[in-house]
């Protein structure tokens, strides 16, 4: 994680950065992601995973 933060600080990230936030609802995951996207000057692509709770969605989720 320290390496990622160092690269972000010095603006040397040339590839797409993917960060997944995991936790219970109402703890600020979306707001944190919005703030990071604003600071880093990137776009926020938000995907709601609550619909993928069952085992039958694993193949759809991972593309197998």
Automatic annotation (TrEMBL):
<dbReference type="GO" id="GO:0005524">
    <property type="term" value="F:ATP binding"/>
</dbReference>
<protein>
    <submittedName>
        <fullName>AAA family ATPase</fullName>
    </submittedName>
</protein>
<dbReference type="InterPro" id="IPR027417">
    <property type="entry name" value="P-loop_NTPase"/>
</dbReference>
<feature type="domain" description="ATPase AAA-type core">
    <location>
        <begin position="19"/>
        <end position="53"/>
    </location>
</feature>
<dbReference type="GO" id="GO:0016887">
    <property type="term" value="F:ATP hydrolysis activity"/>
</dbReference>
<dbReference type="Pfam" id="PF00004">
    <property type="entry name" value="AAA"/>
</dbReference>
<dbReference type="InterPro" id="IPR003959">
    <property type="entry name" value="ATPase_AAA_core"/>
</dbReference>
